[in-house]
């Protein structure tokens, strides 16, 4: 709303200037130099853009940081599969491979289904710690608005709070090798009460 009001005022001012130039008769056409005016219309837009950007940067920083997440899971990219670590639940670790076409059930999505889905709760802030063991990967689920690079030797994090249960599909969106499109990501989001019964039961 703040940015929209600022943009609206600027638009009205520009429209007024254009309309006045088109409808009024120019009384002085000999002005060729206006240093003060050029200085103002160079500095003023820079100040306005700064005032618009600062609140947005603050909101972006606050939205990216969760100090006390309800749940933390670590995802490690390999060529070409994912490893998930449930560190909050006794160090549960498992690999997630793409299912070959011969093992698909009716209704499964080809090249997107995996043997072990990552199970996450809804209505709770979740922090994903993402890294890689070999080359650059990218942990991406477009329908959840998540895309975080997995970099060897670096631990990146992303946070989200899903509000609807379901199965969400994604793929590695970094060109990490010949089979980078064959390391899908499947997140199964379930109600928090069911999740608290134990993630092992849902895998």
UniProtKB/TrEMBL annotation:
Major subcellular site: mitochondrion
Domain Cytochrome oxidase subunit II transmembrane region profile: 1-67
This protein's UniProt keywords: Copper, Electron transport, Magnesium, Membrane, Metal-binding, Mitochondrion, Mitochondrion inner membrane, Respiratory chain, Translocase, Transmembrane, Transmembrane helix, Transport
Subcellular location: Mitochondrion inner membrane
GO cellular component, one term: mitochondrial inner membrane
GO molecular function: copper ion binding; cytochrome-c oxidase activity; oxidoreductase activity
Keyword RNA-binding listed: no
Cited Gene3D superfamilies: 1.10.287.90, Cupredoxins - blue copper proteins
InterPro entries xref list: CcO_II (IPR045187), CcO_II-like_C (IPR002429), CcO_II_C (IPR034210), Copper_CuA (IPR001505), Cupredoxin (IPR008972), Cyt_c_oxidase_su2 (IPR014222), Cyt_c_oxidase_su2_TM_dom (IPR011759), Cyt_c_oxidase_su2_TM_sf (IPR036257)
Function description: Component of the cytochrome c oxidase, the last enzyme in the mitochondrial electron transport chain which drives oxidative phosphorylation. The respiratory chain contains 3 multisubunit complexes succinate dehydrogenase (complex II, CII), ubiquinol-cytochrome c oxidoreductase (cytochrome b-c1 complex, complex III, CIII) and cytochrome c oxidase (complex IV, CIV), that cooperate to transfer electrons derived from NADH and succinate to molecular oxygen, creating an electrochemical gradient over the inner membrane that drives transmembrane transport and the ATP synthase.
Family label: Belongs to the cytochrome c oxidase subunit 2 family.
Name this protein carries in UniProt: Cytochrome c oxidase subunit 2
Organism, scientific name: Cercopithecus neglectus (De Brazza's monkey)
């Amino acid at each position: 709303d703040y940015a929209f009001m600022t943009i609206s005022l600027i638009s009205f001012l520009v429209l007024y200037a254009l309309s006045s130039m088109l409808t009024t008769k120019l009384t002085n056409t000999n002005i060729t130099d206006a240093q003060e005016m050029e200085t103002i219309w160079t500095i003023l837009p820079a100040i306005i853009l700064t005032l618009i950007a600062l609140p947005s940067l603050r909101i972006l920083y606050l939205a990216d940081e969760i100090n006390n997440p309800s749940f933390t899971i670590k995802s490690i990219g390999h060529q070409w599969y994912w490893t998930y670590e449930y560190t909050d639940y006794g160090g549960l670790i498992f690999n997630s491979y793409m299912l070959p076409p011969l093992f698909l059930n009716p209704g499964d999505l080809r090249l997107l289904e995996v043997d072990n889905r990552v199970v996450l709760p809804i209505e709770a802030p979740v922090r994903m710690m993402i890294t890689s063991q070999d080359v650059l990967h990218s942990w991406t689920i477009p329908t959840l608005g998540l895309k975080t690079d997995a970099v060897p030797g670096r631990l990146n994090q992303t946070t989200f709070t899903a509000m609807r249960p379901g199965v969400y599909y994604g793929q590695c969106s970094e060109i990490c090798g010949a089979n980078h499109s064959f390391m899908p990501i499947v997140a199964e989001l379930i109600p928090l009460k069911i999740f608290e019964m134990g993630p092992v039961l849902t895998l």
